[in-house]
Amino acid sequence: MALTPARTMPGVLELLPLDQIAFQRMLDTIRRNYERFGFLPVETPVMEFSEVLLTKTGGETERQVYFVQSTGSLEQGEKPELALRFDLTVPLARYVAEHEHDLSFPFRRYQMQRVYRGERAQRGRFREFYQCDIDVIGKDGLSVRYDAELPAVIYSVFRELNIGAFTIQLNNRKLMRGFFESLGVSDAEQQTLVLREVDKLDKRGADYVRETLTGASFGLAADVAEKILAFVQVRSSSVREAFEQLDALGAGPESMEQGRAELKEVLGLIRDFGVPESHFALNLSIARGLDYYTGTVYETTLNDYPQIGSICSGGRYENLAGQYTKSRLPGVGISIGLTRLYWQLREAGLVSTARSTVDVLVTQMDESRMADYLAVASELRGAGIATEVVLEGGKLARQFKYADRAGIRFVLVLGEDELAKGVVTVKDMRREDQFEVARAELIKTLRVELAQAEIAP
Amino acid sequence: MALTPARTMPGVLELLPLDQIAFQRMLDTIRRNYERFGFLPVETPVMEFSEVLLTKTGGETERQVYFVQSTGSLEQGEKPELALRFDLTVPLARYVAEHEHDLSFPFRRYQMQRVYRGERAQRGRFREFYQCDIDVIGKDGLSVRYDAELPAVIYSVFRELNIGAFTIQLNNRKLMRGFFESLGVSDAEQQTLVLREVDKLDKRGADYVRETLTGASFGLAADVAEKILAFVQVRSSSVREAFEQLDALGAGPESMEQGRAELKEVLGLIRDFGVPESHFALNLSIARGLDYYTGTVYETTLNDYPQIGSICSGGRYENLAGQYTKSRLPGVGISIGLTRLYWQLREAGLVSTARSTVDVLVTQMDESRMADYLAVASELRGAGIATEVVLEGGKLARQFKYADRAGIRFVLVLGEDELAKGVVTVKDMRREDQFEVARAELIKTLRVELAQAEIAP
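^ Those are the sequences you sent over. The predicted structure of the assembly is below.
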């Protein structure tokens, strides 16, 4: 029989076991923190009805959707009725609308699942990737205070992920819109175009942007262009400075005043949530999903790796599920794209292959003593120590080599000597050291060693 | 705008948050036990190339496959290049063949992901469901001892899942084949047909099966039919009895002797692994995937709910990935179909809606004291206690009602009195009781209460 090449589709991140462990630890850390802040788990099916999934979208997103068909439907040449989710927000909207009467509001959910986009194949672009989302959904209304809670959660997540210094950056769409209005740029579409130009600031420089804005296509006055450039360059380094910067913008129309008040309340509360002022800041250049977000918007960057871009983004939206229900469901949400983040951290050398989840390997000296090996393993497992037993046998040197390659730190040897004396020889593969310990002390000893390894991995 | 009905596709199990928590706890328990026995995590993409996925299959499975197409491919009328996995075994085969040189053998992996089958919509049949698999894959060979390890893992899982008495039942395909040969039923296809008839024993009774086997279509002699009926009714209640029953089958051809020796070794080792003899048994009626498994086969049933059928099945196979690689990769694996199991346990009243993952709700008496509430919450979270703060406000009675509905057990009240006295009022929603505790003692007190709740939930 001819062999079929064993290969995965392009644009997916399939990991070897020790990398999968590192990835899984990140997922666990995120989940633990989401739960610690009182968010509840939700999982939705990978497929939705196409009509449900594609009500709101258009353009780029729809072009990237993967459609799904059963064999029967395919044979009959039907149009695909199902499609894979491309984010977790549309499924959340459908979920909340479908189960509205069974949920308590404000509804606080976390969801950590894979999503699918038919992206052009490209390094660092994924067609399947994890999103780790939290959202708080209100019914009829939702206090702006929740806009301060999400950065507190995100701070807690990234601190524990231990990936270096980061800054959660905030802006407010109402403030932006009001500010543009005050400059006579009132049309939403024109605001969008201006923001798109302003986004090129880092790459093309201020002169280029200034020229474009005052050029033929935009035709803004020089002082207006200047004010826009100054606005988008506002960054704070403390809550107090943020307040001063916001005040310095001067009076503006209603929506600007509303946005300013919201930002101030949110920034003050983030501090009350216990987030150090070094870890969040005003950044008036952040726009994000212009047609979707209506108030607070967030981005998070690694201070030492700005080129990675935002590792966690989100914001406030007016109505989650208007396409499915007449109930008004305002919300605020934020999302970590973990697959991409993990990949970038690995590229930057900030995460490495994990230690194995297997703590101990029990070697096999003599197959007639198998029952003894199994009994030791059973004891260790009972104490919560992940233990593998060599069942196959073979030379001891080969068993050590296996442990080394598999990243297992502690290897136990129970030869005739040890069994007679009631002791175990423990070989520490990391320290390249070995010691003898009484059977009765084995669990206690290994627990101490493993706890120390946790602290200084 | 007309509303789109918010609905999920049929054949999926979407859960409300407290049910999702119950489900998640089962997933966590399974994973913890898989890791405790030294299995390593693997995740594969939900999609595989169709040609990779469908090399080995045919008939029923292929008819149930979901094909996937991007918008572009759909518009061009192309044949779908991708399909959703229908189990975790084919992706494992592809994974091991693709990464063969980066893996250590015996390769011990666990994988807990959803799989997809275009089943006919029917109560209790799912089109999307979790499988939780473990497999040990050898290179060139794999000791039969591993066939004893998987039942030990499964015992550990189900004991901890705490879903009542269960029995892991074993048979061996070699023994079966050899036994049939010894009766002159040598043709593999005829063996399959006989086994299919014998499978009707429970439903149709021995007389019906006896008549069919001795009837025109099979034409077996009466004593042969009798021997087959006796064989498939063998059940052991201890290892010793199993050995006696196996010996009582009498001598047989080579493959029968091999199967008998394997079963004896496996049964003895399962006991050495520490599995009580009440929890595993010989059951010579178990056949399973006749063309796939070659040695040991497993099924697991709940003693008090036999109608649920096997909740965990698997077996030994000769060569995992022959369609992708020339390497010989024998293995042994077992799988828990968790979605179906969870659904059945819930139907039988054996699992209920979980307590919330949220341990504590901090109420809001006075919005001007928000910073105090946030500070308490922050302390609790720092101590690993999952805490939600009421940010919206509203009447205290409504906040209590929210906690009750959301299944949150402890509600904290910090009014002016409490803040002045440096205490907190803790309301225990379960016991309908409340007590005052000094701020400095709060974490310690809640930890004790929560630990007690863990023991007697």
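Chain A touches chain B through 104 residues (CB under 8 Å). Residues 55 and 303 of chain A are 38 Å apart (CA to CA).

Shout if you want it in another format.
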